Amino acid sequence: MINKFLTADEAVAGVKDGMTIMVGGFLGTGSPEILMDALVRRGVKHLTVIGNDGGLPVGTHGAKTDRGIAKLLSAGMVDHIIASHVGMNPVIAEGMNAGTLKCTLVPQGTLAEKIRAANYGLGGVLTPTGVGTPMQHALDELGREKRVVKIEGKEYLLEMPLKADYAFVRASVCDKFGNFKCEKATKNFNYVMAGAADKVVLASERVVEVGELDSDHYDVPGVVVDIIVEGEAKWQI
To answer: Which residues touch 102 (CB under 8 Å, ≥6 apart)?
Structure first.
């Protein structure tokens, strides 16, 4: 069996300035914190970050440190964030007002489906969300034109797949091949992002031997995981 294990710093060593990365989590819930810390130590710049939101800033809901993507934003590593919900992190508004940060908002369901399309090798997804609004005529987050497709008299927008150079995701438990499961609210974007990037890095709270848990316990197959990092802290909000 291939050894997929690296340290957090080794796992992010291939991330270069200007790359596009995905980060699982919802306001820090379920984000791979040890990988975010490693990225901050690496100090790459000009990243495009795809995530549900801008993470959870320090002090919000009792957070003692920045959580999730907020760590990258506070470190000035992000040029463009593609997300659905950014109102919780004032760093984003400050960057937009200063002209140092681009923010592209994508409806949450549409964002998930665009990522899923990349994950499953689909050419795109059709959604009625945005039809008849300025979204219909605007370029998408990567500057691609949108098309309107009519099916049985109803119009849909063709939304193109969204892929990254790296996807950083988190598991509650995985085996040594990378088959993994997330518990409760930590599922969010972790499942859909695993497979939607050239490299998938999984940070897991618990690691077990292959076969130690019944295969039905896992929700995501290890074939989509390239790198495993042990030592993710137990989930907390």
So the answer is: 79, 80, 81, 96
d(CA 83, CA 4): 29
Residues whose CB falls within 8 Å of the CB of residue 9, separated by 6 or more in sequence, listed in order? 38, 41, 42
**Beta carbons of 124 and 148 less than 8 angstroms apart:** no
pLDDT in tens, the chain (237 residues): 789 999 999 999 999 999 999 999 998 899 999 999 999 999 999 999 999 999 988 877 777 889 999 999 999 999 999 999 998 999 999 999 999 999 999 999 999 999 999 999 999 999 999 999 999 999 999 999 999 999 999 999 999 999 999 999 999 999 999 999 999 999 999 999 999 999 999 999 999 999 999 999 999 999 999 999 999 998 665
Q: How far apart are CA 4 and CA 207, in angstroms?
A: 12
Strand partners for 166: 21, 199
Provide the terminal-to-terminal Cα distance of the chain, rounded to the nearest Å.
35
**Contact, 232 vs 34, CB < 8 A?**
yes
Measured distance CA(26)–CA(236) in Å, rounded:
12
Q: Are the C-beta atoms of residues 181 and 171 closer than 8 Å to each other?
A: yes
